[in-house]
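Late entry, written up from scratch paper. The run itself happened at the end of the previous shift, but nothing got recorded in the book at the time, so transcribing now.
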Amino acid sequence: MGKELFKHMRKREYPCVCCKKRTHQRDRRTVTAAQRLVLQKWTVGDVSEDEVLCSLCRVKSSISNPDSALHIFQSFQLLHLQKTWAKPMIVVTTSGYYLSVLGPYVAKNNDAAILSHIMKTNKEDVLKWIEERDVFVVDRGFRDSLTLLEDLGLVSAMPAFMKKGEKQMSTADANTSRLVTKIRWVVESANARIKRWKFFDRVLPSSQVPFISDFIKIVCGISNKYFPPLSTGCTEEDSLVAAKMQYLSRQINQLKEEVEERKLDTRSAIWKHPDDLQDFPRLDEDQLRELTCGTYQVKLASSYAEEHFGSGCDIMVHKEDPSLIRVRVTFFGYDMMREA
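Output as recorded:
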């Protein structure tokens, strides 16, 4: 029995912390304390003292040198994949001011795992920035970290999901998502501002990977100093818009009830070209802003229309009654049709 157990232990394999390949026991080398600190910088989660390195990663990347952070990172990804994707975690305020740039992290880690790692390890003393009942506005990629935020006493705001079996969101969920999007557009615009720099609109050589965080911090610092805030509304106007949106979000969707009651979505339609609509109202920009509760959707309208018309699509309309129009959009080259 003892000999069999000894043979089993000799044949046991151990996974390499870098390439995840299983290696023979005689090839394993325990990760040193210096190497562990560098590996934790590029991975999400702690690297324990029991982790091992295979001979390939140790030799090809010169990982035996604990001061070679670049070689360790190359061993972790570049030697085993054709291309490495890295993403930073950027924290911004509701005005678009950049607070911090964390990472970059290997892109195989999702946003929820990265946020959980930042909170649990208290990166850059992030727990000192926040107070109880602070609101974190996140997208759906952070859904697995909502429990952690709640345990920390924070409030999370995230767009709603469609429930299983639903073809569209309920009125309450759709309105909740609109309230979150009204605030979160600043985050997307802040990320777009960084991508406008030519240095970040291309694939970077591996020699620049360890310095990505520094480069992004420089860009964010320049943006904070010299670029205007993304959101410059006054407190009084913002309060009025917020009160209006809160009020509208609690109203009944009368159009939805009318469509379901009259079963308009099941009726046959006579589709015509939009030019045949003689009495369709023409709205100026102020009226559009009043309908959309802001300028974000109005600014996106031109690029959205150009994207659809440029790729080829056909818009047809059907007039149910003088106050209701049914619209169908057909995309050329795709087996796709959308009605509203």
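The longest helix spans residues 171-195.
(Scratch paper discarded after transcription.)
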